[in-house]
Specification:
10 helices; 15% strand; 11 strands; two-stranded antiparallel ribbon; nine-stranded parallel sheet; alpha/beta; TIM Barrel
Length: 304
């Protein structure tokens, strides 16, 4: 049986789109790998990451749990929720996952995705085996939640290694878990999160090397630090299976922040024909209970 790659899967779709657009198609630079084969106008939905309420979801005891988080999302009339793995109980069971899924469904919410805090930048050995096992476990949990996508990380170059070695190890780690994700019907979305994924070029190098239809990008608009961030979003948007929107961004190496141009972000997603969830991941200093409703209102107006 031939290995299924995104390049092979999308070759015919890309060719058909080019023929259909004909002379009206605007010229674009050649890409190293075909983007996700979206040919219809962008369709956007709103979700929120549990990380937005991190100061309420942590503590002993926490002020709220994930069921309360789902209630907050329902009060905001959102379309979905992203329950981050960090806030599940340590002894999470399949019964717990099913109860959370049913609770969200009862309130009219999808589980838009979830996340695992993995690191694949380790050579073969016990540490990498543990990261692979953890990622497979959260793939299983995503499947039990009916979450179609799980956000993963690559990692950073460990001491004594080169970036080339770290990239090779990360590719091996991703490829080790992808068949299991495919079997469970889960898409893996690699986040731009510093380390060996700090630039679009670094991210796309990994996407090209893995080349699988259930592997793409989790575009986080708060994790770049250059002066051309909107251009960087535009480079990754065609490969995004999930988008997390921050309300602030950093410029250069500065710790200072400025308000993100959310209208420009949504425009970039529409230009790329991105369809799916726009997940608010709120990180600013103001109390999320007061600030999040304002940003949700703005995003809802922009995507309507």
């Amino acid at each position: 049986m031939r290995h299924l790659t995104r390049r092979g899967l999308l070759q015919q779709a890309a060719a058909a789109m080019t023929v259909g657009c004909g002379a009206l198609a605007s010229p674009r630079p050649a890409r190293a790998i075909p983007p996700i084969g979206r040919t219809r106008p962008s369709h956007l939905k709103l979700s929120i990451a549990a990380y937005s309420y991190r100061q309420y979801l942590t503590g002993r005891p926490p002020k709220i749990d994930l069921f309360d988080f789902v209630n907050l999302a329902a009060d905001l009339a959102l379309d979905g929720v992203e329950p981050t793995s960090y806030y599940f109980p340590p002894d999470v069971t399949t019964d717990y996952l099913h109860r959370l899924k049913v609770h969200a469904f009862t309130l009219g919410l999808d589980i838009s995705g979830t996340a695992v805090g993995n690191n694949f930048c380790f050579p073969p050995g016990p540490r990498r085996d543990a990261e692979i096992a953890k990622t497979r476990l959260w793939i299983d949990r995503a499947a039990e939640l009916d979450a179609p996508v799980i956000r993963i990380f690559a990692g950073s170059v460990p001491r004594g290694a080169t970036e080339e070695q770290a990239v090779g190890w990360a590719i091996e780690g991703i490829k080790a878990v992808l068949p299991h994700a495919a079997q469970r019907g889960i898409v893996l979305a690699l986040e731009n999160h510093g380390g060996i994924t700090g630039t679009p070029e670094q991210i796309l190098k990994l996407v090209k090397a893995v080349d699988a239809p259930n592997f793409g990008v989790n575009l986080d608009t708060g994790n770049f630090h250059g002066n051309d961030q909107y251009d960087q979003y535009a480079q990754l948007a065609p490969y995004a299976f999930n988008v997390q929107v921050k309300t602030e961004l950093h410029r250069g190496g500065s710790h200072d922040t400025e308000e993100a141009d959310l209208a420009r972000v949504i425009g970039i997603l529409r230009e790329a024909r991105y369809s799916g969830y726009v997940v608010l991941e709120y990180e600013a200093a103001a109390d999320p209970m007061k600030a999040i409703p304002k940003y949700i209102k703005t995003l809802r107006q922009l995507i309507s």
